[in-house]
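3.2 Worked example (two chains)
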Amino acid sequence: MSAPVRVGVDRDRCCGAGNCVVTAPEVFDQDDEEGLVLLRRAEPPADAVDRVRLAVELCPAGAISVAHRPEHSAVAGSPQAPAAP
């Protein structure tokens, strides 16, 4: 299974090629006016991560970025233990 990621897009760099939409339509779309990328899901489901990575490679303008996001551990959200004296 792929590690969780966070997707970002730069509409100023987008050239409207649409490769991202064809590759991962559950994550990307294009606007009706200029055909520029729209991000539908910044945190895609695990089964879409490989397609998102492919969309990054296929984007001729380099307008898509992917960063790993930390997984939540069982301790996350727990009160922090007091510091040792």
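3.2.1 Second chain
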Amino acid sequence: MLLVLGVALLPACLPVSKTPYTQKKYYHKTKAAIAGLPNPQNQPDTVQVGWAKVNITPRHQAPLAGYGKRKGKRLTGIHDSIWVRAFVFKNKRQRVAFVTMDLLIAPMSVREALVKALPNIGYQKEQVYLTASHAHSSLGGWAKRPAGFLMAGKYEPKIVAGLTQAILQAIKTAEQRAVPAQIGYAALIADSLVANRLVGAGGSRDTALRIVKIRKNTSETAVLVTYAAHATCLPAAELHISGDYPTALVKLLEQEPGINFAAFGAGGVASHSPAASGSGYEKVNNMAQGLATIIQREYREIPLRYQSTLNAVEVPLYLRKPHWRFAENWRFHPAMFYLVFGKYPATLSGLRIGDIVFIGTPCDFSGELVLDLQPSLTSNQAKLVVTSFNGGYIGYITPDKYYNLKKYETRDMNFFGPGNGAYLSEMVRLLWSKL
């Protein structure tokens, strides 16, 4: 009540700050944090890999997450089982868990609980790289503030506790199964299955289907796939739990001879939508089949070799005060933003496995920005994989040239003001170089 009264006494609105981000303290603080990371230690040792999954399908009538239009409605049935999937990469010097979940995002509440619990299994927060499939018809109940209630339904502590325990169990089991393994990478073109939903043909698209292939010495094989299309084949009217096309894709891949385990993580999904034909579950199946066909045609030829470099880092991502706008040059007071959305720390995650570098972002990161970061998607020399939803959330990060578009992504979901496309891109480049 005191917080509400305090907000009421503050100015309702403020002008948008146009000061270039390079002149702001937060920019220099993040640069310093990246520069202050220790240089990678050169202690070659063969990387071992294990993997595991844990079922997180709700056993009660839980809320769904994904669309504000649903207004937090509860599920009426189960179309797909949903899972937490984990890979553990380890050698004598380091161990790192890569965790992806069949959820809209890696929820902030889950990350908070996970950070507290990780020491119980011998991990620190920088040793766990988080992402999600970005499924818009999956489990909710994990958001604590009004905006979260609209997108993900009423907060339920038991859901957060259950997701946290599932992640811990997946990590522990994956580590127990780790053995020496060969690892390879490919960026395949999946041009016909992704569209630019922000500006259509006037914008660029990240069409790369990025694949990490792993083969253990026991001959078991896994694939980790990232792609830029939103998992929005299913509409807001869908009230069954589903992992959308990523879950359907994983199922198809695990039916393929020679693939024992598959996982999916969201790439630069801001501005990007699924472009397969059909609607609803027909579109889900067409997306999944289209992507699976590309992978099935190419994955056997992905070259594999033992890797010896393994490094993981996490750095704070400092930001300007919230710039949640209601008009082109006017924003709500930051206290209003915090009241509606909450206040959470933002970080950048980094993971290097051999010559493959993953950068995790706390947002819907734009595939158009990924293209600028990695000019040659057809060259296997450019082994950068940018993922969204690393356990924080700062809204949509799109190219700055779109800042004044009156669109959902650039007005309603741009939380921290102008310049953030260039700012985050610069920080990703710096972290990539550091790794």
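3.3 Remarks
The longest helix spans residues 157-176.
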